[in-house]
Structures are given as structure tokens and as C-alpha cells.
Amino acid sequence: MAKKTPNINSSSTADIAFLLLCYFLMTTTMGDKTGIQRTLPKIPESTQQKDIQINRRNLIQVKINSSDNVLLIAGEYATVPVPRKGDKIDDALITAKIKEWMANRGHSEQLPARELPDKPEEAKYPYEVLKGVVSLQNDRSTHYDTYITVQNAIVRAFNELRDEEAFARFGRHYDELTQDEADVINFIVPKTISEAEPKDKNKTK
Measured between alpha carbons, how far is 116 from 122 in angstroms, rounded to an integer? Predict the structure, then answer.
């Protein structure tokens, strides 16, 4: 008489799987990245529209077309095409040009203003504030890698300006400052980055 193969009791398999699922859910560390952080300039009141049109000196446009070519446009005449290093955009040039334009070390009237605060609540910060705004616009056909490269170059320009300002005022790098000192630097060099609506070269009017 042949022996019967004993059956495996699987009645508790579902319970074990559920316990394992609970274990991994409780022990897994979730990523804390929340995307690209931006501090956008405040929406102007209707009475300020005229001033914004006059103060074109405070705006630099970074444009990426559908062929991933990048153009820096500051004012009406200063236009800088960004060359490539092989297949990649020269992101170091973007950072350097934005820093040079934003800082306006010589107080040129063709570059962004450096102004003292005029609001009573900002009296505790008697420092010149950089008024430049970087406006980024891409085409809907722009490649993602190019877009992120340009984004990083812009943010790096602001980070380096903050670091230089921190070292000049406090003798330490930005990431070594106290919170009060960092607040001062953030006030002097605000990250004013605006993103315009992407263009679509294939869209017909």
C-alpha cells in the first residue's frame, strides 16, 4: 500500500504575509524629497504694474527652446547664448552670469538694484537687498535633463551668492551660520525665481 504524501498546512500563510507587510511598512524609511523648492516673488498689486515695466533691469530671463538651446536675456540688449560642452549645456556659465548680474558689485544702473529696506518691520535688517529676479521659461519639447541642469545652475548661483555674503559678513560659510545669521543672509539674497508658462512650438494660433 503506497504511503500518502502529507499535506502542508497553509491556513496561517495569509496571517504571516500580513505580519510581514506590517513589519516592512513600519520599518521602511520613506523619502522626504518634496520636489523643487522655490521662493517666488510676491504677486504685485495692480498699482505696481507700471513700476515693474520700468524696472526691467531687475529681470533676467533664462529661456530653453525645443532644441535644448539656452539663452540668457538681461534687459533689452544683453543677450548671452549658452554654449555646449559636447552634449551638455555649460551650466557653470549660467551660474557665473547670473551671479555677476545679480550681485551688481559696482551699482550699475544697467544691472539689478541693490536697495535698503523701506518697510518698518524690516528695519532690523539695515542691509542692501538684491532685487534681481530670474525668470525661467522652457518649451514643452525641452528635454527633462536639460531643464533640471538649468534649474540646478540657477539655484547654485543663489546658493553661492548666499555663501559669499555669509563669509563677507560673518566670516563663516552659509551652512555654518546660526538661524538668526542665516535669516539676515536670506533677506539680503532672496531666492526670487519665477517660472513662466512653457511655450509650445508646435501649437498653432
Answer: 9
